Amino acid sequence: MVFYTDKILEHARRPRKFGRVVDPDVRFEELSPLCGDRIRVELRLANGGQILEARFSGEMCAIAKGSASILFESLEGRTVAAAIAISDGEVLESLAGTIPKNRIQCALLPISALRGAVRVEVNGRR
Question: Suppose 42 and one of 15, 21, 100, 115 were both cysteines; which one would form an S-S bond, judging by CB atoms 3.0 to 4.6 Å apart?
Fold first, then answer.
């Protein structure tokens, strides 16, 4: 049985930054091959690489959705470089509890998708 922290449950039930960006500069979708969670990342960026708007959407479990909500709530105003410098450990720590080993991939799906979105931006394949 998986025990969800209050913080994860709150963010999973009422996710922040869930939705779409109007006319995003970057779009990226990632699918977890193990569990089928799917997350779509959309970013609107300033010329200097600052994240003006960040949203996520998709179909995902409570851990992935809670993790995405917590992560995306912290992105706006950061530079892209600062956002992708967020470590896996920082993401897990932000969840305020211990995630079972078999569910860590769910918790890290949002940061993985964010990194994928930034790779798209850097490679210019908007």
Answer: 21
pTM of the model: 0.90
> In 5-44, which positions are buried (b, 16+ CB within 10 angstroms) versus exposed (e)?
eeebeebbeebbbeeebeebbbebebbbeebebbbbbbbb
Q: Give pLDDT, residue 58.
A: 97
| CATH number of domain containing 67 | 3.90.1010.10
Residue 24, domain extent: 18-121
- Residue 77 located in a structural domain: yes
What is the count of structural domains for the chain? Answer: 1
Per-residue pLDDT at 102: 87
Of the candidates 115, 49, 114, 117, the residue with the CA atom closest to the CA atom of residue 77 = 49
In a domain, 5, yes or no: no
Name the phi and psi angles at 31, rounded to 5. -120, 135
Return the residue matching tokens 């479990």.
Answer: 61
Helix (H, G, I), strand (E, B) or coil at 63: helix
